[in-house]
Design goal:
The structure holds two protein chains of two kinds. In chain A, 50% of the residues lie in helices and 15% in strands. By secondary structure, chain A is α+β, with helices and mostly antiparallel strands. Chain B is mainly α. The chains are: A alpha+beta, B mainly alpha.
């Protein structure tokens, strides 16, 4: 089977936004990356000291992989098919069948065996999203939002990435759009997206998720140097900065992307108030950037003051306060709409 | 963040790609800006990569000192842990740990050796030894040299 789908590839900051956006565009719905991110409620915060990867506590600025595609399509009334395959051969055959019918196929893959990926980013990370847009002999054509153009990978390597081992196994998960409605209500989708994010950031009664997660992180950061020693404290802090600025956040742990979403929504819905909240969110993002700069100084042993970890914990609390105010404003606004 | 403030710190970690960042232009409107990197983030990423290299080097030394078998070294070299190796090989963890012992490793069947060699993507001859010199994971696995 040889078929290459005529597919318009666009880069994105975040892989799942990018894949969702590129699939929607193929089916005739053009939405910007910020809109997809916001409607899909892609903003989150999570700090879980009990779960460790390579001995370092997990923190995250995004929800679990897969939810953005699911929420966006649901909120726009789009019919999709999402499934996993126990049988690898079947997983490959089903993808081929779809490509043959000119249907681009979204896939969840691990990046370690993704041969075209930037080598320094090839970790055992299993929640990357790509779209298979063609096959020619043994080569698949891949639209990967991180890459500037359509890439290629051979069928053996692709299958390996689809069945990558380790944390969050993709298990051959693939997805595609079945049917797109004639009309959809973008305003209602935006409102649903915002409500969901406000709820997750403000109201989860669990001190590791949402804004209270940032507070818990601040509390712990202060103790790291005494508890862990200088070297390990740096690794712990480095992990937070990595998650905040990893390829795909669009900067500042998705906060700029979210501000861009609020700005665009303000125009679509003709609500100037949302633009004001967007400006507040930009300031929150700037503070997260400042946190990155300060952490960078700690990494390089160039922190100008004594007690760097106490200072950086203070900064985290400042971020939390500012972000909380912003979300309270957003929550009030969206409830009265 | 303003458009002109988006960091353009190139350390070639993205291998020539420039990623998308969101920033505001002179009219306060959000726009996409491409960036090859940012110093604090690059340091944090390299920290994580160095940590992997340290673990590999530690494993290599343990093999040379006769404390561990090459399986232990190649597991680290390929960024695996016991969980991943368990899933790849189908062996339970206690069996894997036995295979990490040099004495037991020497007695492994051709079939088992072949299994490990395939998992690590090397030959069974190569599996018998570890490199004489320190290896850097990115260079060894992907032919990519990290800039300092």
């Amino acid at each position: 089977m040889n078929n290459i789908i005529d597919f318009q590839h666009k880069m994105a900051a975040h892989c799942e936004n990018g894949v969702t956006g590129n699939l929607l565009r193929f089916h005739g719905i053009e939405l910007s990356e910020p809109l997809i991110f916001g409607i899909g409620s892609g903003l989150f915060f999570f700090y879980m000291p009990l779960i460790k990867m390579n001995g370092i506590p997990v923190s995250s600025f995004r929800p679990l992989p897969g939810v953005i595609f699911k929420r966006v399509t649901k909120r726009l009334g789009i019919e999709v098919n999402v499934r996993r395959y126990k049988n690898k051969i079947r997983a490959a055959e089903e993808a081929d069948k779809l490509i043959e019918q000119n249907i681009p196929v979204g896939m969840v893959v691990g990046v370690y065996d993704l041969t075209y990926f930037p080598p320094a980013y090839r970790f055992r990370f299993n929640a990357h999203n790509i779209i298979a847009v063609g096959k020619e002999n043994d080569t698949y054509y891949i639209s990967d939002p991180i890459m500037e153009k359509i890439e290629q990978i051979n069928s053996k390597d692709l299958l390996k990435t689809r069945y990558a081992k380790g944390t969050y196994k993709p298990k051959g998960k693939m997805y595609y759009i079945k049917h797109v409605p004639e009309t959809y209500d973008i305003n209602s989708a935006i409102v649903k997206g915002i409500k969901h994010t406000c709820r997750e950031m403000l109201n989860i009664p669990f001190s590791y998720a949402g804004l209270s997660g940032i507070k818990t992180l601040a509390k712990h950061v202060k103790k790291w140097p005494n508890k862990l020693g200088e070297q390990k404290a740096k690794l712990y802090l480095g992990q937070v900065v990595r998650m905040q600025e990893e390829i795909g956040t669009g900067g500042a742990g998705f906060r700029f992307l979210y501000a861009a979403f609020l700005q665009e929504s303000s125009q679509i819905m003709n609500k100037p108030q949302l633009n004001e909240i967007s400006e507040q969110m930009t300031e929150v993002g700037d503070l997260w950037r400042e946190f990155g700069v300060e952490a960078g100084r700690i990494f390089k042993n160039r922190y100008p003051k004594s007690n760097p970890y106490e200072n950086i914990a203070e900064l985290l609390l400042k971020i939390k306060d500012k972000e909380e105010k912003t979300f309270i404003n957003l929550n009030k606004f969206i409830k009265n709409i | 963040m303003k458009k002109e403030d988006v960091p353009q710190y190139d350390n070639n970690l993205l291998n020539g790609i420039r990623e998308i960042q969101y920033a505001v232009d002179e009219h306060g409107n959000y726009t996409e800006v491409k960036s090859p990197g940012w110093e604090p983030k690059n340091i944090a990423l390299k920290q994580a990569l160095f940590l992997i290299d340290e673990m590999i080097e530690d494993a290599r030394k343990q093999v040379l000192n006769g404390k561990k078998s090459p399986v232990f070294f190649y597991m680290h070299l390929k960024q695996m842990d016991l969980n991943i190796l368990k899933e790849e090989s189908g062996f339970p963890k206690f069996i894997l740990k036995r295979h990490f012992k040099p004495k037991i490793f020497k007695k492994l069947s051709e079939k088992t050796l072949k299994k490990y060699a395939d998992i690590f993507g090397i030959s069974t001859t190569k599996l018998q030894t570890v490199p004489k010199k320190t290896v850097k994971a990115l260079e060894y696995n992907f032919g990519f040299k990290l800039k300092n």
